[in-house]
Structure formats: structure tokens, C-alpha cells
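pls design
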């Protein structure tokens, strides 16, 4: 068996201690502000299969560092905007790690939605799924 020095659950807990977590009800309210952008970091297949938050920007977790860094050839100008960035995944583990990373990179006003998309839907947040 592989001798892991730092397990994923410990990594997530360390990230949670360093980042801002937003309760779902507050996230639903914040997302209505035009100066707030919800960032969906789930895999494209998850987003297509399970639906998404209307108006959310899709940025796969595997590309986040490249899309946030203005020096990267993959930079996305959306991260140059002075907005509130609310990241989410399905449950909130990946988004906790993601917000920890982008905060270390220097992205300001980034937080993640506690409980992820699952909690968002349970709280009655706006949600859509494409036909087909």
C-alpha cells in the first residue's frame, strides 16, 4: 500500500482553515449580485449530466491555475474582473482546495460554497439542466 504523507481529508481540512466558506443561503443571495460570479469547477461531464447554476462560469479544476494566471497562455479575462468569486464543486472538497490555491496565487475576493452544488440544490437555489 502507498504510504501517503498527507491525505486528502487532511488537505481539505487545512484548506478550510485558510479560506472563506460561504453558507449556502448566503451564497444564493450573493450570487444575485451582478458583481458576483459563481465558478463551477466540476468536470464538463458532471456539469452536463447533473446540471448547473444558471449564469455560472465553467472552469474545470484541472485548468484553474492556468486560467487565473495572466502570464499563462490559457488566461481567461473573467478572472481579471473585480468581482466576488464563489467557487463550487459537487460537495465542496474540490472547491475548498481550489480556493486555497487561487488565494495563494493572489486572486482576491474568492470563497467557496459550503456544501457545494448538492447543498445549493437542497436549499432551493436556482438550478438548470440542459435538454438532451
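designed seq:
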Amino acid at each position: 500500500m502507498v504510504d501517503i504523507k498527507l491525505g486528502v481529508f487532511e488537505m481539505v481540512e487545512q484548506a478550510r482553515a485558510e479560506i472563506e466558506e460561504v453558507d449556502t443561503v448566503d451564497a444564493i443571495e450573493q450570487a444575485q449580485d451582478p458583481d458576483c460570479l459563481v465558478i463551477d469547477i466540476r468536470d464538463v461531464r458532471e456539469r452536463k449530466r447533473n446540471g448547473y447554476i444558471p449564469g455560472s462560469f465553467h472552469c474545470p479544476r484541472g485548468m484553474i491555475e492556468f486560467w487565473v494566471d495572466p502570464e499563462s497562455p490559457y488566461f481567461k479575462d473573467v478572472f481579471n474582473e473585480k468581482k466576488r468569486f464563489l467557487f463550487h464543486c459537487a460537495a465542496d472538497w474540490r472547491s475548498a482546495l481550489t480556493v486555497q490555491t487561487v488565494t495563494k496565487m493572489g486572486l482576491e475576493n474568492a470563497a467557496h460554497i459550503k456544501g457545494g452544488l448538492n447543498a445549493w440544490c437542497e436549499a432551493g437555489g436556482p438550478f438548470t439542466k440542459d435538454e438532451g
